[in-house]
């Protein structure tokens, strides 16, 4: 794994407003990295700084291990605000205009139109595109110069469920083609469905960072019951990979240590002659964890 973005102790103040406070962040090649947080938590400020459109008050960051020069930024494609397209020009004509501005050969257009699934509609005027198509064209325009990194701010805002699903699929397929993606979102569900890693911001402070799979695994609980609950509890407690246990209604709810699996626990219970009449593995959604994290974090 190589580091794509390294943010070190970054802060940004707007007068008295501390938009970002001592942010550290690591994004590795191939990550789909979600910056998650409620409105005003500093996501757009972070993206603005790493794209060089906002100046940090203090701290530093590097792209691909290098200082963030204009040359290095050529490897980054971004959509911070909806780009302006000409309504009466077709999708393809709009991309031609952008090619001229970015000094990218026109041969770059066909592959990006195919990537975002707009090739069949390339000759239709932009004004007739659905919101989802407009967003896909925006992504196509950001991909014209074949960047290594794509940055998106709230990529599914305002879209209908089908448009949302299309954009999410597109993000995953772009990442599968070897690109790194950094996106800001206030939608947990989005991060859970799309991202490999995420950081949670609250009032400009990072309150969590890690992999999505690990966060989900961390939230895994095993719920059990048996005709003899006391015997179940006694036997379960002797399982060496037990992290915690608690009673919830008439069930025993346990958490296992990392790497331990449910079948080993089940085998352990059977060997102790415990007969279960209920066993389910439950995962707390990232949404629930996120809300708990936000509630726990001190301002
Ligand atoms: N240009 C600015 N001038 C003054 N304050 C600003 C400016 N830009 C952002 N802020 C403030 O900085 C804080 C962080 O804002 P930011 O836009 O980065 O958050 P965000 O997480 O992207 O929120 P949203 O989802 O609403 O866009 C907020 O309190 C915001 O009001």
UniProtKB/TrEMBL annotation:
Xref: Pfam families: ABC_tran
GO function terms (MF aspect): ATP binding
Domain ABC transporter positions: 5-228
Domain of life: Bacteria
Keyword set includes Transport: yes
PROSITE patterns tied to this protein: ABC_TRANSPORTER_1 (PS00211), ABC_TRANSPORTER_2 (PS50893)
Signal peptide range: none
Keywords noted in UniProt: ATP-binding, Nucleotide-binding, Transport
InterPro entries: AAA+_ATPase, ABC_transporter-like_ATP-bd, ABC_transporter-like_CS, P-loop_NTPase
Claim: Lipid metabolism is one of the keywords in the record: no
Similarity section: Belongs to the ABC transporter superfamily.
Name of the molecule in the record: ATP-binding cassette domain-containing protein
């Amino acid at each position: 794994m190589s580091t794509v973005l390294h943010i070190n102790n970054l802060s940004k103040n707007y007068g008295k407003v501390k938009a970002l406070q001592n942010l550290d962040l690591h994004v590795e090649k191939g990550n789909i990295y979600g910056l998650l947080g409620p409105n005003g938590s500093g996501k757009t400020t972070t993206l603005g700084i790493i794209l060089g459109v906002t100046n940090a008050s203090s701290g530093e960051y590097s792209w691909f291990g290098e200082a963030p020069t204009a040359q290095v930024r050529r490897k980054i494609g971004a959509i911070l605000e909806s780009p302006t397209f000409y309504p009466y020009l077709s999708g393809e004509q709009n991309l031609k205009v952008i090619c001229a501005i970015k000094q990218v050969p026109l041969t770059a257009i066909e592959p990006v139109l195919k990537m975002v699934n707009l090739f069949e509609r390339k000759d239709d005027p932009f004004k007739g595109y659905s919101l989802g198509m407009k967003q896909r064209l925006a992504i196509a325009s950001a991909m014209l110069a074949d960047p290594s990194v794509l940055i998106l701010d709230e990529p599914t805002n305002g879209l209908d469920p089908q448009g949302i699903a299309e954009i999410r699929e597109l993000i995953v397929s772009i990442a599968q083609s070897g690109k790194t993606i950094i996106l800001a979102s206030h939608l947990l569900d989005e991060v859970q469905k799309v991202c490999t890693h995420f950081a949670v911001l609250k009032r400009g402070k990072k309150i969590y960072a890690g992999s999505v799979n690990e966060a989900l695994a961390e939230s895994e609980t095993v719920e059990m019951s048996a005709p003899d609950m006391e015997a179940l509890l006694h036997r379960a407690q002797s399982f060496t990979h037990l992290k915690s246990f608690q009673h919830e209604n008439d069930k025993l709810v346990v958490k296992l240590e990392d790497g331990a699996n449910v079948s080993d626990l089940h085998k352990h219970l059977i060997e102790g002659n415990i007969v279960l009449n209920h066993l389910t593995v439950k995962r707390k959604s990232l949404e629930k964890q996120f809300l708990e994290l936000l509630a726990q974090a001190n301002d």
